[in-house]
Amino acid sequence: MHVITRKRLNEFAKRHSDAHSSLLHWYREIKKREFSNLEELRRIFPSADQVDNLTVFNIGGNKFRLVSAIHYNRKRVYIRAILTHQEYARGTWKE
Protein backbone atom coordinates (compact mmCIF):
# COMPACT_ATOMS: atom_id res chain seq x y z
CA MET A 1 0.00 0.00 0.00
CA HIS A 2 1.13 3.53 -0.66
CA VAL A 3 0.98 5.71 2.47
CA ILE A 4 0.12 9.38 2.08
CA THR A 5 1.86 11.01 3.87
CA ARG A 6 4.68 9.68 6.01
CA LYS A 7 5.38 13.25 7.06
CA ARG A 8 2.43 13.11 9.49
CA LEU A 9 3.91 10.02 11.13
CA ASN A 10 7.27 11.73 11.56
CA GLU A 11 5.75 14.94 12.93
CA PHE A 12 3.68 13.05 15.49
CA ALA A 13 6.67 10.93 16.53
CA LYS A 14 8.68 14.11 17.16
CA ARG A 15 6.01 15.34 19.59
CA HIS A 16 5.39 11.89 21.12
CA SER A 17 8.67 9.98 21.14
CA ASP A 18 7.02 6.96 22.79
CA ALA A 19 4.97 6.49 19.61
CA HIS A 20 7.96 6.34 17.26
CA SER A 21 8.64 2.58 17.23
CA SER A 22 4.93 1.68 17.02
CA LEU A 23 4.34 4.08 14.15
CA LEU A 24 7.39 2.75 12.35
CA HIS A 25 6.13 -0.81 12.79
CA TRP A 26 2.67 0.18 11.46
CA TYR A 27 4.24 1.94 8.48
CA ARG A 28 6.45 -1.00 7.55
CA GLU A 29 3.61 -3.50 7.83
CA ILE A 30 1.13 -1.44 5.79
CA LYS A 31 3.74 -0.52 3.17
CA LYS A 32 4.83 -4.07 2.36
CA ARG A 33 1.31 -5.43 1.79
CA GLU A 34 -1.68 -4.86 -0.43
CA PHE A 35 -5.14 -5.27 1.06
CA SER A 36 -8.35 -5.66 -0.90
CA ASN A 37 -10.76 -5.01 1.96
CA LEU A 38 -11.11 -4.55 5.72
CA GLU A 39 -11.26 -8.29 6.33
CA GLU A 40 -7.81 -8.77 4.80
CA LEU A 41 -6.49 -5.77 6.72
CA ARG A 42 -7.70 -7.22 10.01
CA ARG A 43 -5.63 -10.35 9.49
CA ILE A 44 -2.57 -8.17 10.11
CA PHE A 45 -4.21 -5.43 12.23
CA PRO A 46 -6.96 -7.21 14.20
CA SER A 47 -7.93 -4.12 16.19
CA ALA A 48 -8.54 -1.95 13.11
CA ASP A 49 -12.05 -0.49 13.21
CA GLN A 50 -14.23 1.02 10.54
CA VAL A 51 -15.75 4.33 11.70
CA ASP A 52 -17.99 5.74 8.98
CA ASN A 53 -15.73 5.82 5.93
CA LEU A 54 -12.48 5.88 7.94
CA THR A 55 -10.30 3.13 9.37
CA VAL A 56 -8.90 3.60 12.88
CA PHE A 57 -5.80 1.77 14.10
CA ASN A 58 -4.73 1.35 17.72
CA ILE A 59 -1.06 2.28 17.99
CA GLY A 60 1.34 1.73 20.86
CA GLY A 61 -0.79 -0.51 23.02
CA ASN A 62 -3.87 1.66 22.55
CA LYS A 63 -2.11 4.86 23.65
CA PHE A 64 -2.53 6.42 20.22
CA ARG A 65 -4.99 6.26 17.34
CA LEU A 66 -4.20 6.56 13.67
CA VAL A 67 -7.19 7.63 11.59
CA SER A 68 -6.97 6.84 7.90
CA ALA A 69 -8.94 6.76 4.70
CA ILE A 70 -8.09 3.61 2.79
CA HIS A 71 -8.76 3.31 -0.92
CA TYR A 72 -8.35 -0.42 -1.44
CA ASN A 73 -8.90 -0.18 -5.19
CA ARG A 74 -6.05 2.33 -5.56
CA LYS A 75 -3.86 0.68 -2.89
CA ARG A 76 -3.53 3.96 -1.00
CA VAL A 77 -3.74 4.83 2.68
CA TYR A 78 -4.36 8.49 3.47
CA ILE A 79 -3.42 9.43 7.03
CA ARG A 80 -6.11 11.78 8.27
CA ALA A 81 -4.92 12.17 11.88
CA ILE A 82 -2.76 10.65 14.57
CA LEU A 83 -4.08 11.32 18.04
CA THR A 84 -3.48 10.48 21.64
CA HIS A 85 -6.18 8.32 23.17
CA GLN A 86 -7.53 11.39 24.99
CA GLU A 87 -7.70 13.48 21.80
CA TYR A 88 -9.46 10.66 20.00
CA ALA A 89 -12.02 10.28 22.81
CA ARG A 90 -13.03 13.96 22.44
CA GLY A 91 -14.32 13.08 18.98
CA THR A 92 -13.39 16.35 17.28
CA TRP A 93 -11.56 14.38 14.57
CA LYS A 94 -14.96 13.30 13.18
CA GLU A 95 -15.86 16.87 12.18
Mean pLDDT: 92
Provide the β-strand percentage band: 25-35%
Number of helices: 4
Named CATH architecture: 2-Layer Sandwich
CATH class descriptor: Alpha Beta
Spatially, the strands of the biggest sheet line up as: 1-5-4-3-2
> Which oligomeric form is depicted?
single chain
> What is the H/E order?
EHHHEEEEH
Overall structural domain count? 1
The helical percent reads: 25-40%
Described by the principal axes of the CA atoms, the overall outline is globular
Named CATH topology: YaeB-like fold
What does this structure look like?
- This protein is an alpha+beta fold.
- The chain is built from four helices and five strands; from the N terminus they run βαααββββα.
- A five-stranded mixed sheet has the order 1-5-4-3-2.
- The radius of gyration is 12 Å and the shape is globular.
